[in-house]
């Protein structure tokens, strides 16, 4: 089995990968430079599974992942999830005073998660985005007045210095990753299902759909709207619910939704992360 993840080594995606693969005896790991490239490779069968970030407890959803699964990844399904704690470090090529830092490099999500720390401690620095936190560390390695935001492992891998730790604005910081494949998981008895749908732009249309979940006593663990990318003011809704799509009561819900939605896509059923 070949598994893709957002590389290079030292990303939080790699940390999620290591957790997911710890009990898999034989697998080949491939580093990919961006989320769109990961999904493209999986869609073309260049790999069997892929791990991508989907949401963070501070900054919310990773929009590129959501949008690609909604609009571009017709043949892919979610078969698992991994949730990991996120601790950001300020990393540089050598120990330097924070007042001498001119650039801070990181993934946009990481920069956003450390917004207050940057404002209070390094207000003079220009923010530069990178495709991953590990790539940011690599870029900072060759810039004496730059620092990167990444994890402790990335500093160790690339021979960098940690200037300060736990710089995220909220200490209880978690990111959820999903495992993508061409099929989802079998029933375990402790599952969740992700789906997206759209409704007509008429009064009460969303209320009627949400009522289906309430009538069947289905717990929604997430609901989020995203632009449809087809028409201004038109949205699709991403919902996570408890239960597997093959459970009898979930089958009943999905059948009812077919008659109340303009568009319905089941993204997969998978075990809740323990």
Automatic annotation (TrEMBL):
What single Pfam family name could you report for this chain, choosing any that match?
PDT
**Presence of keyword Amino-acid biosynthesis:** yes
Prephenate dehydratase domain boundaries: 2-182
* InterPro entries given in the database record: ACT-like_dom_sf, ACT_dom, Preph_deHydtase, Preph_deHydtase_CS
Enzymatic class: lyase
Q: Where is the ACT domain?
A: 194-271
Chemical reaction(s) catalysed: prephenate + H(+) = 3-phenylpyruvate + CO2 + H2O
* Annotated pathway: Amino-acid biosynthesis; L-phenylalanine biosynthesis; phenylpyruvate from prephenate: step 1/1
Q: What is its EC number?
A: 4.2.1.51
Q: Name one GO molecular function term.
A: prephenate dehydratase activity
An example GO biological process term is:
L-phenylalanine biosynthetic process
Entry keywords, A to Z: Amino-acid biosynthesis, Aromatic amino acid biosynthesis, Lyase, Phenylalanine biosynthesis
| A Gene Ontology term for the protein's cellular component | cytoplasm
Record flagged with keyword Amino-acid biosynthesis: yes
The record's section on PANTHER family has: PREPHENATE DEHYDRATASE P PROTEIN (PTHR21022), PREPHENATE DEHYDRATASE-RELATED (PTHR21022:SF19)
What protein name is recorded for this chain? Prephenate dehydratase
Which organism was this protein described from? Aceticella autotrophica
């Amino acid at each position: 089995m070949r598994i893709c993840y957002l590389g290079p080594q030292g990303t939080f995606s790699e940390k999620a990968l290591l957790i997911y693969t710890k009990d898999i005896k034989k697998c080949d790991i491939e580093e990919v430079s961006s989320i769109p490239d990961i999904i493209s490779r999986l869609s073309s069968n260049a790999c069997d599974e892929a791990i991508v970030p989907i949401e963070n407890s501070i900054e919310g959803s990773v929009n590129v992942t959501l949008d690609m699964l909604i609009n571009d990844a017709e043949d892919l399904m979610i078969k698992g999830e991994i949730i990991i704690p996120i601790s950001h470090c300020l990393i540089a090529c050598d120990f330097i005073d924070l007042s001498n830092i001119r650039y801070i490099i990181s993934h946009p999500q990481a920069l956003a998660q450390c917004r207050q720390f940057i404002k209070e401690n390094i207000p003079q620095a220009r923010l530069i985005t990178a495709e991953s936190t590990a790539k940011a560390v690599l870029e900072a390695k060759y810039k004496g007045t730059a620092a990167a935001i990444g994890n402790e492992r990335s500093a160790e891998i690339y021979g960098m210095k940690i200037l300060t730790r736990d710089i995220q604005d909220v200490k209880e910081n978690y990111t959820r990753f999903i495992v993508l494949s061409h099929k989802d998981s079998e029933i375990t008895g402790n599952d969740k299902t992700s789906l997206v749908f759209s409704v007509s732009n008429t009064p009460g249309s969303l209320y009627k759909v949400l009522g289906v979940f309430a009538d069947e006593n289905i717990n929604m663990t997430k609901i989020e709207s995203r632009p449809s990318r087809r028409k201004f003011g038109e949205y699709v809704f991403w919902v996570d619910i408890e239960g597997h799509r093959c459970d009898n009561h979930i089958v009943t819900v999905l059948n009812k939704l077919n008659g109340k939605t303009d568009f319905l896509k089941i993204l997969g059923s998978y075990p809740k992360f323990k």
